[in-house]
Amino acid sequence: MLELEFTTIKTWDEALWTRMEPIYHEAFPSGAKTKVILRSMLDRGIGYLHTGVHHGEVVAMAVTGLGGKGEERLLIIDYLAVEQKLRGSGIGTWMLKQLRAWAIREHGIKGMIIEAESGTTEAHLERIQFWQRNGFVLTSYVHHYRMVPEPYQAMMLPLDGSAHVPDDGKALFRYINAFHKVAYRKS
User: Fold this and answer.
1) Over the stretch 104-158, which tens digit does the pLDDT of each residue have?
2) Can you tell me the distance from the alpha carbon of 33 to that of 146, in angstroms, rounded to the nearest whole number?
3) Counting beta carbons within 10 angstroms of the beta carbon of residue 32, is it exposed (0 to 12), middle (13 to 18) or buried (19 or more)?
4) HEC assignment per residue over 96-139
5) What domains sit in the chain, N to C, each tagged with a CATH number?
């Protein structure tokens, strides 16, 4: 695997975003949050941008936020992407390890959650398998958004014995929906 440097920013950096943006749009060509929304999330202190950099080139990126309070603090991975030509090389797993270490150190999280598109295509199954290989547990509940055509399922990585993975996933969508509600709110 490439030698990478992990960075996290909590204030908007236009130059860094310019380097991240191609990976973001390549991985999420439709339905992704706009630059205005992402910038607003950072400006309001509710989101973080993370990069994996190899020799000055951004090769992986993530957008995260926090859900819950105190003992129930969770990291919500809103987006995680690796440059297409480098997928399958271990960089996504490396990014997850970096995100986990950062979130535990900085925020004392008890688990990490994501929402994965729920589908039966090869692409859907590959994404879910990636998360499962990295310890995430797929929940059974299928969530349907009003404004988004595809359904989603929550997945969680508990980080200690106190974090419980709900069987059906509805409880995890309370965190995810609360995060989205704040993210999309005008400042």
Assistant:
1) 999 999 899 999 988 888 988 999 999 999 999 999 888 888 877 788 999 999 8
2) 16
3) middle
4) HHHHHHHHHHHHCCCEEEEEEECCCCHHHHHHHHHHHHCCCEEE
5) 5-184 (3.40.630.30)
